[in-house]
Amino acid sequence: MNREQRLEAMAAADAAAIVALADDVLETFAVEVTRGPTVGLLMVRVEEPADRLPFNFTEVTVAEAEVAAGEHRGYAMVMGKSMEHALAAAVLDAALAAEHPLCGRIDAFIDGAIASDERRWAARWAEVAPTRVQFEDVT
Amino acid sequence: MGYSSVRGGMDAIEHAEALIAAQVTDSDHPVALPQVTDHVELLLDQVMGEGGVYDLDLGALAVKQAEGDPIEAGFLLRAYRTTLPRVGYSFPSSGRQMRILRRVSSAFRDIPGGQVLGRTRDYTQRLLDFALRDTPPKTLAPAGDLDALPSGAAPEEFPLVIDTLRADGLMHEAPRRTSDDEPFDVTREPLRFPSTRAARLQVLARGETGAMLSLAYAGMRGYGGAHGYIAELRYGDLPVQISHPITGGPVRIGWVPVTECYQVVGGDEGAQHTHDGTEDHEHVQGENPEYVVSYGIVVGRNERKAISMSILDGSLKKTTKSGAAIEDEEYVMYHIDSIEAMGFVEHLKLPHYVDFVASVHRTSKVRELVAAARRG
After folding, report:
1. How many domains, in total, are found in chain B?
2. pTM for this prediction
């Protein structure tokens, strides 16, 4: 799993759970906060499909943080205003880069976050799937 | 009744503010924010879209504070956003990447991936449901064992309907890659005319639903619009992707729910419809008539606005104008913004004492002069 996929999973993870895991990691992992944590606005761009024209669609609130642990950096941006979530994800990102002893637990957490996200989507799709139209020809 | 400027009124103003604050909070059944997010979703989506900020918590708070007034709530969001720093821009997301929860076409019956009605009120009778006065039990069966569910549908299952038109040679091919032009940002720079289509699409996406519906309706009735065909109307989640600052690779940090409308016009019915007036793909009438797409996209579930946006986008793209108001970008863009419109109209109720005194003095003077003239 690459770094981008890890961040996608951590951004979708439960905020309280990821903060708890980061607290455990920080007991044996010293980091320096180099960016934020801060709450700001990200402008979401959309590509108009016919002419492939990008335009500014809407802003979303995001929380962002970056940490350094020696030569290793950790970064996270999450949607919403939870600076704790962003900071925790940045800490875990740095811990994975530094091959911290709790890497196995972090990987398992990330796998669990991906699975939970997929289950949530599957449940939403399961609600609307029966509304898929089967047309009948009247002859 | 005297016509003179006055000072004071602070006690009255403070009491009026206290009254409105109490109206929001004093109740045996105060509104909790989750009630807004769970049960007043359409209003919340409208407010976030017109306020220009997607944040469920902030949107629900604005709805509660504004007593459900969508324009006031949008104003609160727009004011709040000015207190936050801009951290950057996302990569442009495309409707092709959406996770689909609803998707219908009024142009084609059979579309690749099929039609998905999703959650819609389109087929319900408009009868008050008095059972809702009490809290009825949930009527939707639970999804069951979440681990046993099949995967959710992938975006690739629902290719864009306009691609079918392209495959049939009825639409011009899309450019190979995204335009390099830096999109105009109306939240950063004042509008200037003529504007760009990117600026128009941003203003339309933030426009007020009722105003856009009204203009689009007028257009369809013959005042500069067109009665096109909805190739596709879709609702779902659009990915939000940023550039990872360490690796430079794209990262999806979440999703924004959106409604998209792809409206096709033209064919042998409207040579005047072209895409943005550029010459390289100019619409051809006659031997090889083409269809062109007008586009609408809005935050959340708001099909009325998405369809209206696509109609207005189509009207503003025309290179041959009929002179109708909704083909005039300045007319449309200045008048669909809820905050601008509300501010200008409602400012009339604020004190204009000095202005009116001056008017009365002028009127009295004119009357004196007229009377004097009549006396000779």
Report:
1. 2
2. 0.91
